[in-house]
Specification:
- The complex is a heterodimer of chains A (about 270) and B (about 325).
- Chain A is globular.
- In chain A, helix 3 packs parallel to helix 6 and helix 5 runs antiparallel to helix 6.
- Chain A has ten helices and twelve strands.
- Chain A is of the alpha/beta class and about 270 residues long.
- A six-stranded mixed beta sheet of chain A has the order 6-7-8-3-9-10, with helices on both faces.
- Chain B has about 325 residues and is an all-alpha fold.
- The radius of gyration of chain B is 20 Å and the shape is globular.
- The chains are: A alpha/beta (about 270), B mainly alpha (about 325).
- At the A-B interface, helix 2, helix 3 and helix 4 of A face helix 10 and helix 11 of B.
Chain lengths: ~270, ~325
C-alpha cells in the first residue's frame, strides 16, 4: 500500500443545466478505505460519483486518479483504475453472469482484441469471489435483486480497479442480502481497493464504513469516522431530523440505539 | 441446443431456401438439374445440358435474383439488430434514421427528372444518395438539439421522415402517371429485373459493412449494457454510435436503393434470434443474417410464384408476415 491517495478531489464544482449540483468539494480517498457517502435526495451524491468516474465534465477544480489528472486520461485508462456500479441497474437481462462479467475486461482488452487466458482467469476469479460460480451461466434477468447486485460488483471487479464507486448498492435489498453485500465489499476493501458507496440507510452506512461523508446541497457538510459523524450536527441538519442516541458508537451499543425524529419545520 | 448449433442449422436452412427458390417458380428445375448445371458452370462435364432458354433463365435471371434476395435479407436483419442495440430499443429499425423516406425522395426525383429512364442505375443511385443524405440530416439535426442524444435522434428521425415523405408526395403529385407507376413498383419493394450488376453493387457495399460490424462486436456488446455503463467501461459512446449509425445508413441505403422498401425483416429476424441465441452480438448478428436472408429468399419466392401473371410486391409479402408477428410480440409484452 502506498500513502498517495487513490483519488484527490480539489475544489470541484459540477454544473448540470444552470445549477451547480456539486459545489467546491475537496477530499482525498486512500487505499482500502470504506467510505459511505450519505445525504438527502438531490444532495449531489450520484453526480459527484459520476464525476469521479470521469463521466461528467467538471466546471472548475480538478480530480486526480492514482496521481494523474482525469483530464489527461482516456475513458479506458480511467476504467482500468475506477469502476462504477450505477443505481438500480436492470439492463441487458439476457446476458449471463459470465458474459456480463467478461465485459468488465473491456478496459484491458480494448475494442478489437479477444479475451486472453489472463482475462478469463480474472473473470472466473471475481465470479468465485462474489459467490456467483453456481449462477455463472444464469441470465441477469433471472437473478434476484441481491444476486444481480453481486453480478454487477463482479463486473466492476473484473476491471481490476483501485477504486470502486457504488451508487445505492443496497437499494431494494432485504436486510440479509444487504449484510451479505456489505460483507463482500469489506472483503474487497481488505485487498486495498478503495470503496466509495452512496448509501441511504444511515445505520447500515455507519456500521459498514470506515469513514462517512455527508453531502448537503452539493457541498461537503461533514467528513470523519462514522461514530463522530453520526453524533455531529451536520448529519441531522442535512436530513432535517434529530438523531437520538447519537452517543452510541457502532460496534459498542450497536445500531439499535440510533433513532431518527423529523424536525418540526419553522 | 447450443447457439453455435442453432446458427449452423440456420445456415443450412438458408441453403435449403436458396435451393428451393432456384428450383421453384413459373419455370421449374429439379435439384439434380441444379447440381448438374452448377458442376457444368465450374468446368466439369456432367449429365445432359439444359436447353438454352432454361439455362438462361436459371443462370441469368433466377440465380442472381435469389442470391441478391439472400444478401438483402441478411443486410436488413443485421441493420435491424445494429439499430436495436444503438437505440437500446428492440423495436428500432431503419425508419428511425429517415433512410426509407430519403431513399424514396431520391428515387422519385430521379423518376420525375427522367434520369431513371435515361441513365443506367440512376434510380438506385439517387435512392442511395437520398438515404445517406437523410441519415446525415437526422444525425446533424439531432446533434444540434439540447435534449438527450438518443431521444433527440428518435424524434428527429420521425420529423425528418415526415418532412421527406411530404416532399415525396408533392413531387409525385406533380409527375405524369407513367412515371408514378415506375416509382410505385420500386417503393413497394421487389427484386424483379435485378441482375448481376445489382448483386455486385449490393455485395460491394454490404459485405465490407458486415465485416466491419463483426469486428466491432465487443463495443456493440458494451452498448447492450446501456450508455452510462458503456461509458463507465471506457467506451467512447458518441463516437462509436456515429460509426455504427454510419454503417447502418450504408447498409439500409444499399438495400433500399436496390430492393425498395422491404419492411419488418429488420425487426422480425433479430427479435426471433435473440430468444434463440441470446443478445451477444457474435451470436446474434450471424444468426440474424441467416434468418433474414432465408426470410427474404422465401418471400421473394412467394412473390414470383403465387401469381402466374405478375410478381407480387416483395414488401407486401414481408408486411403480410411481419405485421402479425409484430402483433404477436406486442401481445407477449414481456418478450419485447
Amino acid at each position: 500500500m502506498t500513502d498517495a491517495p487513490v483519488v484527490r478531489v480539489r475544489n470541484v464544482t459540477v454544473r448540470r443545466g444552470i445549477r451547480d449540483v456539486v459545489r467546491d468539494v475537496s477530499l482525498d480517498v486512500a487505499n482500502g478505505e470504506r467510505i459511505a457517502l450519505v445525504g438527502p435526495n438531490a444532495a449531489g451524491k450520484s453526480t459527484f460519483l459520476s464525476s469521479i468516474a470521469g463521466l461528467l465534465p467538471i466546471q472548475s477544480g480538478g480530480i486526480d486518479l492514482c496521481g494523474q489528472s482525469l483530464s489527461v486520461l482516456s475513458g479506458r485508462q480511467i476504467a482500468r483504475q475506477a469502476a462504477l456500479v450505477v443505481a438500480l441497474y436492470e439492463g441487458a437481462p439476457r446476458l449471463t453472469v459470465r458474459e456480463s462479467t467478461e465485459l468488465g475486461r473491456y478496459p484491458h482488452a480494448g475494442p478489437l482484441q479477444g479475451l486472453t487466458d489472463i482475462d478469463h482467469a480474472v473473470v472466473e476469479h471475481v465470479i468465485a469471489e462474489t459467490g456467483l460460480t453456481p449462477l455463472a451461466d444464469r441470465s441477469l434477468g433471472s437473478l434476484s435483486a441481491g444476486e444481480r447486485q453481486r453480478a454487477l460488483v463482479a463486473r466492476a471487479l473484473a476491471q481490476e480497479p483501485r477504486l470502486l464507486l457504488l451508487d445505492e448498492p443496497s437499494a431494494h435489498l432485504d436486510v440479509g442480502h444487504a449484510l451479505d453485500l456489505f460483507a463482500l465489499l469489506s472483503t474487497i476493501a481488505l485487498r486495498g481497493v478503495a470503496i466509495v458507496a452512496v448509501i441511504h440507510d444511515l445505520v447500515a452506512a455507519a456500521h459498514w464504513a470506515s469513514r462517512m461523508i455527508v453531502m448537503n446541497d452539493g457541498a461537503l457538510a461533514d467528513d470523519g469516522p462514522p461514530a463522530s459523524v453520526m453524533k455531529g450536527a451536520a448529519l441531522g441538519q442535512a436530513f432535517g431530523v434529530n438523531i437520538l442516541g447519537a452517543h452510541s458508537a457502532p460496534g459498542q451499543d450497536g445500531a439499535a440505539t440510533w433513532r431518527f425524529e423529523r424536525r418540526i419545520r419553522d | 441446443m447450443t447457439p453455435r448449433r442453432i446458427t449452423g442449422l440456420l445456415a443450412l436452412g438458408l441453403l435449403l431456401s436458396i435451393v428451393a427458390a432456384l428450383c421453384l417458380g413459373t419455370v421449374r428445375y429439379t435439384p439434380i438439374e441444379l447440381l448438374t448445371e452448377g458442376l457444368r458452370a465450374l468446368g466439369f462435364s456432367a449429365g445432359a445440358p439444359l436447353d438454352e432458354a432454361h439455362t438462361i433463365i436459371l443462370n441469368e435471371i433466377r440465380f442472381p435474383r435469389v442470391l441478391l434476395a439472400a444478401l438483402i435479407g441478411g443486410a436488413l436483419a443485421v441493420t435491424g439488430a445494429l439499430l436495436q442495440i444503438v437505440f437500446q430499443n428492440p423495436m428500432a429499425d431503419a425508419s428511425l434514421l429517415g433512410v426509407g423516406s430519403g431513399a424514396a425522395l431520391g428515387a422519385v426525383i430521379a423518376v420525375k427528372l427522367g434520369w431513371s429512364f435515361d441513365i443506367f442505375l440512376a434510380l438506385p443511385a439517387a435512392a442511395f444518395a437520398g438515404a445517406l443524405g437523410a441519415a446525415f440530416m437526422v444525425y446533424g439535426v439531432a446533434q444540434s438539439t439540447k435534449s438527450s442524444s438518443l431521444t433527440s435522434l428518435i424524434l428527429t428521425g420521425l420529423a425528418v421522415s415526415a418532412f421527406l415523405s411530404g416532399l415525396t408526395s408533392i413531387v409525385l403529385i406533380a409527375s405524369e402517371e407513367f412515371r408514378v407507376r415506375a416509382v410505385f413498383f420500386w417503393l413497394a419493394g421487389g427484386l424483379e429485373g435485378r441482375g448481376y450488376i445489382h448483386l455486385a453493387i449490393a455485395a460491394a457495399l454490404i459485405v465490407p459493412a458486415c465485416l466491419v460490424i463483426a469486428i466491432l462486436h465487443r463495443p456493440l456488446d458494451l452498448l447492450l449494457l446501456g450508455e452510462m455503463e458503456a461509458r463507465a467501461l471506457g467506451l467512447n459512446v458518441p463516437r462509436m454510435r456515429l460509426v455504427l449509425l454510419g454503417l447502418a445508413a450504408l447498409l439500409s441505403g444499399a438495400t433500399t436503393s436496390i430492393a425498395g422498401s422491404v419492411p419488418f425483416i429488420g425487426l422480425m429476424a433479430p427479435h426471433a434470434m435473440r430468444g434463440l441465441v441470446g443478445s451477444r452480438t457474435p451470436r446474434l448478428l450471424p444468426a440474424s443474417f441467416f434468418a433474414g436472408a432465408a426470410l427474404v429468399v422465401l418471400s421473394d419466392l412467394a412473390a414470383r410464384a403465387l401469381s402466374d401473371r405478375y410478381d407480387l410486391p416483395l414488401g407486401a409479402i414481408t408486411s403480410l408476415c411481419g405485421a402479425p408477428y409484430l402483433i404477436h410480440i406486442l401481445r407477449r409484452t414481456d418478450s419485447v
